[in-house]
Design goal:
By secondary structure, the chain is α/β, with parallel strands linked by helices. The protein has a single domain, classed as Rossmann fold (3-Layer(aba) Sandwich), CATH 3.40.50. The chain has eight helices and five strands. It has a five-stranded parallel β-sheet with strand order 2-3-1-4-5, with helices on both faces. The N and C termini lie close together (about 10 Å). The protein binds adenosine-5'-triphosphate and magnesium ion.
Length: about 200
């Protein structure tokens, strides 16, 4: 019986998270694990509704942070915790680190407020492993623009915003080096995926 594992992927818009989700899921399932693949914001009916609002409707930064954590609470209680309890693995495209990076680093929401929300919403739950796709904002922006004609509220932000988001992510990774694995996302998907597999094997087999 394999222990349930909770893995998140993080990084600025266009860093390559979603690109790697399907190959990661396929590989984890091929190792014989039951796996739930999910995303934030989203992952539940309420979360997907809030995702639409947060990505498209203007709002102040604190409201944005509160909505993200409301969606996250629903996600944790109805999807993530039950999956882990029945022994399944969970792979989430973004999780709580994204709030520290985007609402904290990007929008300037007070760290103390985010820490309070994290304590309330996550209790003891943290991912076992977080892959941080680290990429310079200029390259990430080029990838986003090439990939999608319509940009959401975050994708429309300027380079300085994403520089702050990236720095907040890296600060979080530095504070928790045992949980984070930082990937140089400038490389090809093949090279990045090979590194992901070797990390998963080294950590969890
Ligand atoms: N390593 C890579 N090299 C070059 N292009 C890449 C790489 N990884 C992803 N891409 C391309 O960059 C674009 C953005 O990738 P992807 O959607 O995976 O990013 P993301 O991190 O999920 O972004 P978002 O946060 O906006 O959802 C896609 O068009 C994808 O094909
Ligand atoms: Mg994505």
């Amino acid at each position: 019986m394999h222990k349930a594992r909770f893995i998140s992927v993080e990084g600025i818009d266009g860093a390559g998270k979603s690109t790697h989700l399907a190959p990661m899921a396929q590989w984890i399932r091929a190792q014989g694990h039951d796996l739930v693949v999910t995303r934030e914001p989203g992952g539940t009916a309420l979360g997907e509704a809030l995702r639409e609002m947060v990505l498209h409707q203007p709002m102040n930064a604190d409201s944005e942070a509160l909505l993200m954590f409301a969606a996250r609470r629903e996600h944790v209680t109805t999807v993530i915790a039950p999956a882990l309890q029945r022994g399944a693995w969970v792979l989430s495209d973004r999780f709580a680190d994204a709030s520290f990076a985007y609402q904290g680093g990007g929008r300037g929401v007070a760290l103390a407020h985010l820490q309070q929300l994290e304590l309330w919403v996550l209790a003891d739950l943290q991912p076992d492993l977080t892959f941080l796709f680290d990429l310079d904002p200029a390259t990430a922006h080029q990838r986003v623009v090439q990939g999608s004609p319509v940009l959401d509220r975050f994708e429309q932000e300027r380079g300085e915003f994403f520089t702050r988001v990236r720095e907040a992510y890296l600060a979080r990774a530095q504070a928790e080096p045992q949980r984070f694995h930082v990937l140089d996302a400038l490389r090809t998907p093949e090279v990045i995926f090979a590194e992901i597999k070797s990390v998963l094997l080294a950590r969890f087999s």
